[in-house]
Write a structure and sequence with these properties.
The protein has strands at residues 3-7, 10-13, 18-25, 34-39, 46-51, 58-60, 68-73, 78-83, 92-99, 111-114, 118-123. Helices cover 0% and strands 50% of the residues. The strands form two sheets. Strands 2, 4, 5, 6, 9, 10 and 11 form a seven-stranded mixed beta sheet that branches. A four-stranded antiparallel beta sheet has the order 1-3-8-7, with no helix packed on it. By secondary structure, the protein is an all-beta fold. The chain is globular.
Length: 124
């Protein structure tokens, strides 16, 4: 059974930084792309960032490109999201997910497994 556990969320002032982690178990983690999504209150879940299985390719939503960095450590079965220059509009629950493909994918329905989420709150 696949399990994903996110950590690293919290409350931060605008302009600050947070690093999210997602520990995966129960699957050959390194065979699949990974992604981060977020969901703000009253809004649909949206794509944030994705990384291919061998870390050769990453892709970001326009709203976070240049501020967020996705990375992974296949030996540790962990994916990270470094978030810098945070803005109040980044406030959301952040979820990591395992894709059904090895290459980067931004579409939510191509992700098979999801974590429970971690809250990120950015104050102005």
């Amino acid at each position: 059974q696949v399990q994903l556990v996110e950590s690293g969320g919290g409350l931060v002032q605008a302009g600050g930084s947070l690093r999210l982690s997602c520990a995966a178990s129960g699957r050959t983690f390194s065979d699949y792309a990974m992604g981060w999504f977020r969901q703000a209150p009253g809004k649909e879940r949206e794509f944030v960032a994705t990384i291919s299985r061998r870390r050769l390719t990453t892709y970001y939503a326009d709203s976070v490109r240049g501020r967020f960095t996705i990375s992974r450590d296949n030996a540790q079965n962990t994916v990270y999201l470094q978030m810098n220059s945070l803005k109040p509009e980044d406030t959301a629950v952040y979820y990591c997910a395992v894709a059904s493909t090895s290459g980067v994918i931004t579409v939510l329905r191509f992700y098979d497994y999801w974590g429970q989420g971690t809250q990120v709150t950015v104050s102005s």
